[in-house]
Amino acid sequence: xxxxxxxxxxxxxxxxxxxxxxxxxxxxxxxxxxxxxxxxxxxxxxxxxxxxxxxxxxxxxxxxxxxxx
Length: 69
Description:
Blueprint: E1 2-4, E2 10-12, E3 16-19, E4 24-27, H1 37-43, E5 49-50, E6 56-59, E7 62-64
Antiparallel strand pairs: 1-2, 1-5, 3-4, 6-7
């Protein structure tokens, strides 16, 4: 997810997500994710965010799918 800081700087860091058919859950491991810069920026009113979704081939070993050209 990409979010903006108070001074307009982008913060782009991978997060886990799930889709239950109705809602997206975006977060990470444990409650400490709510204290990350990205979540603090959104709570501070910086609501310009963008999801970035990767299609993972494998997590062990870690392999992201390459875009088609």
